[in-house]
Specification:
The complex is a heterodimer of chains A (423) and B (315).
Chain A: H1 2-18, E1 36-42, H2 47-62, E2 66-72, H3 75-87, E3 94-98, H4 102-107, H5 115-119, H6 130-134, E4 137-138, E5 141-142, E6 145-151, E7 153-157, H7 158-163, H8 173-183, H9 210-217, E8 223-224, E9 228-229, H10 234-249, H11 259-267, E10 273-276, H12 280-286, E11 291-295, E12 305-314, H13 320-333, H14 336-346, H15 364-372, E13 376-377, H16 386-401, H17 406-422
Chain B: H1 2-10, H2 23-58, H3 75-82, H4 84-115, H5 123-135, H6 138-149, H7 155-162, H8 177-203, H9 206-214, H10 219-247, H11 251-256, H12 268-278, H13 282-314
Helix pairs in contact in B: 2-13, 3-13, 4-8, 4-10, 5-8, 6-8, 8-10, 10-13, 12-13
The chains are: A alpha/beta (423), B mainly alpha (315).
Chain lengths: 423, 315
């Protein structure tokens, strides 16, 4: 019996602690002679990955001081892999990650400040989309360079639109609901539509941006100035009331869906519209859906969309030589030629506002998204504890759709978000 | 013959402890034993003991995994016991354990009793089939289950709808989500407990059943008076094992609900993951891990005492 006890004890200890056992590592190696070698982790795996590899190869060939080797880590795991790697002092020199994850790393000293780089006129950063740069800014300093910034947009199923005799995507909230209603079909009358007009998830929405986008439409917001919760506003209460009525009473959307579920509902042809990012183009294409792209319809007060951002940063483990080498690559990545190549290859709008629209007109998706680029607003810029803030928003929207009291839930969310910001 | 003599000489029974003459041989045996244990001990030291000690150290710091860290005393532990989120996670974990442990153990026991019957046709097939889920990764199984019960595209939902049964969006229902993730864990794990029970049942000598039968004991009486007492060690082992597994619930919850809807499936290990890997609060996550470890040890110890006493009562 003692042996069993010992084994059980050891097993429990191993399992419980494997989750927590990490430690601080040493310094990176000093630069030696020869070119500076950098590793670059990113999660671009589709056509965008090929273009990025090409840009890196060309950069390596263009000079003989810096050699960059890339390593692909999917977006889903890049975060989980980065932390142990940094702990072991064995992290990448450059890492790309979803922009809303940058502040928590930056605030804890994982990344090198890029303020001097931004100040350098040769860095090609002067005309970056200000919203994108805002997502790189933490406590007044910039820690990353955007590799992607695109507003969420409405993707619609042209075949379903035609079948219902609708020719134009909706431009305002009211039109959005009316259009969605006429696209919602409950053929057998059992109260559960077989086809929905739109799919609006109530939690874990695409890039967490659906509800923020709706809040913006009625002049509401979640956090102001990076440190003040403003979610409990009459504007947001109206927004929630409006959409709850459309989703629950008019049944224009299935309820209880998350962002990934929304992609599935749309790609299986069970919803005529969805809100998503540029990858919807691939998802729709794979499923044989002829799609159109339209901006998120204007709310009563404003037309705006939460943007999806991707950033790349230089890890603080790097010495000066490596940091300068990485900055050299960033400037190269953002030059005129590569800005266009990257935009066309990745399917995302150009990051620099001085790239003329006709430079990317050969790709219809990019052209459509570029027209909408100015609607994009950064999500929770500079908020370090975005995890808890987004959890509070998810909890709010889920409970509202489930029929909860909007005023009380907004007050609850306000407290939770302010606590997270003060933490 | 000489080989046999050699073996006999070498492996003669150890002399009573304290005998001066045999002490060197005993020491040599210890060294041999240690040498054989060394590979396992080294692995345990490197991958269990050292991380465990590092985590203990981290739990008294504000470490984020990299960069500077400062000593914060018992600050993290105080936070563990005062944060409302943690209390919610503890309540959820207890609820999950209550749902999972008895169900998994009873399902496994029932099936083991059923399949221990030597006259059952296709016995090996059933035994293999029941064990199969255990060899599937829980994360993979959880993905499969998520798709099966998806209200829009789920096959299971589609079939049930055909039968007029509506289960709705189980994973988005704050009441049903936890039983659902517990059910997936039961599906995945009962095969393992089942095999242990089966081994336990086969260890019970057939002669005891025969003797009982001769004494006029019916099936229930044989179960009550032969199977139950002789299976009690196995039972205790399985219960404790299942409970430890339940306290560490993570994989399928991470995959299926991410802790939602609104925190209703957020367990302690989910909380550890979130603090450590999402918020980069490794010190706090380590402290929470230690609290979970100590709670697990205490609960296991309590069960040993309980089952030990029962065993004494029965014998």
């Amino acid at each position: 019996m003692f042996r069993t006890r010992f084994l059980l004890g050891a097993g429990a200890a191993a399992a419980a602690l494997a989750l927590a056992g990490c430690s601080v590592g040493g310094e990176s190696d000093d630069a030696s002679d020869g070119p500076t070698e950098l590793t670059f982790w990113h999660g671009y795996t589709e056509a965008d990955g090929d273009v990025l590899e090409q840009i890196v190869d060309e950069f390596n060939a263009s000079q003989d001081e810096v050699v960059i080797s890339t390593e692909i880590k999917t977006w889903a795991v890049i975060d989980d892999t980065l932390l142990p790697a940094l702990s072991a002092g064995d992290g990448p020199d450059i890492v790309a990650m979803p922009a809303e994850r940058l502040p928590v790393y930056a605030a804890r000293g994982a990344f090198a400040s890029l303020d001097d780089f931004y100040a350098d006129p040769d860095s090609n950063t002067a005309n970056l989309n200000p919203g994108a740069v805002e997502m790189e800014t933490v406590e007044g300093s910039r820690y990353g360079v955007p590799t992607g910034f695109v507003p969420l947009a409405v993707y619609y199923n042209k075949a379903l639109f035609e079948a219902a005799g609708i020719s134009e995507p909706p431009a305002t909230w009211d039109e959005w609901v009316t259009t969605a209603k006429s696209l919602t079909v409950d053929g057998n009358g059992d109260g559960t539509p077989e086809q929905y007009g739109v799919v609006l998830p109530d939690h874990a929405t695409v890039a967490n941006g659906l509800w923020p986008s709706l809040f913006y439409g009625n002049d509401g917001d979640i956090v102001e100035g990076g440190d003040t919760a403003v979610i409990d506003s009459p504007e947001n209460a109206e927004t929630l009331e409006f959409w709850r009525s459309a989703i629950v009473d008019d049944k224009i959307s299935p309820t209880g869906v998350d962002g990934i579920g929304a992609d599935e509902v749309f790609s299986s042809g069970k919803a005529a519209m969805t809100v998503g990012g540029p990858w919807m183009v691939f998802i729709a294409g794979d499923n044989g859906i002829d799609y159109g792209i339209a901006p998120i319809p204007a709310g009563p007060e404003a037309q705006a969309a939460s943007a999806i951002g991707v950033s790349m940063a230089i890890t603080a483990q790097d010495d000066v030589a490596k940091q300068e080498a990485a900055e050299q690559f960033f400037a190269y990545f953002l030059n005129d030629e590569n800005s266009v190549a990257w935009s066309l290859g990745s399917g995302w709008p150009p990051l620099r506002t001085d790239i003329p629209a006709d430079a990317v007109s050969e790709n219809a998706t990019v052209a459509a998204l570029t027209e909408q680029a100015e609607l994009g607003r950064p999500l929770l810029p500079g908020v370090v504890n975005s995890v808890d803030v987004l959890t509070a928003v998810d909890e709010l929207t889920q409970k509202v759709i489930a029929g909860g009291d909007i005023e009380a839930l907004l007050a609850e969310a306000q407290t939770a978000i302010q606590t997270a910001l003060d933490d | 013959m000489s080989t046999q003599n050699h073996i006999v000489r070498r492996y003669r029974p150890a002399a009573p402890l304290g005998g001066r003459r045999v002490a060197p041989a005993s020491r040599q045996r210890s060294i041999t034993a240690l040498a054989f244990l060394a590979p396992a001990l080294i692995i345990l030291a490197a991958f269990v003991a050292w991380p465990a000690l590092s985590a203990l150290r981290l739990s008294f710091t504000d470490a984020s995994g990299f960069g500077k860290e400062e000593f914060v005393g018992f600050g993290n532990y105080v936070e563990v016991f005062t944060q409302p989120d943690i209390l919610n996670a503890v309540v959820n974990t207890v609820w999950y354990t209550v749902l999972f442990t008895p169900t998994a153990v009873l399902v496994a026991l029932g099936l083991a009793l059923l399949l221990n019957n030597p006259h059952l046709p296709f016995r090996s097939f059933f035994r293999t089939a029941l064990f199969l889920p255990f060899i599937v990764s829980l994360a993979v199984g959880a993905f499969a289950w998520s798709y099966l019960i998806d209200p829009q595209i789920g096959l299971l939902n589609y079939w049930l709808n055909g039968l007029g049964v509506r289960i709705g969006n189980v994973l988005q229902d704050p009441v049903l989500a936890m039983p659902m993730v517990a059910l997936v864990a039961v599906w995945k794990n009962f095969g393992f407990y089942f095999v242990i029970f089966l081994a336990g049942l086969q260890d019970i000598p057939a002669s005891l059943y025969e003797a009982a039968r001769v004494d006029g004991a019916g099936p229930w009486s044989r179960f009550r008076n032969v199977t139950v007492p002789l299976l009690s060690n196995t039972f205790a082992f399985v219960v404790i094992f299942a409970m430890i597994a339940a306290l560490q619930a993570f994989d399928q919850i991470y995959v299926m609900t991410g802790g939602g809807p609104y925190g209703s499936t957020q367990t302690v290990v989910m909380e550890i993951y979130e603090s450590g890997f999402r918020k980069l609060e490794l010190g706090f996550a380590s402290a929470l891990s230690y609290v979970l470890l100590i709670a697990t040890l205490l609960l296991s110890a309590a069960q040993f005492v309980f089952f030990g006493r029962r065993e004494k009562d029965l014998s």
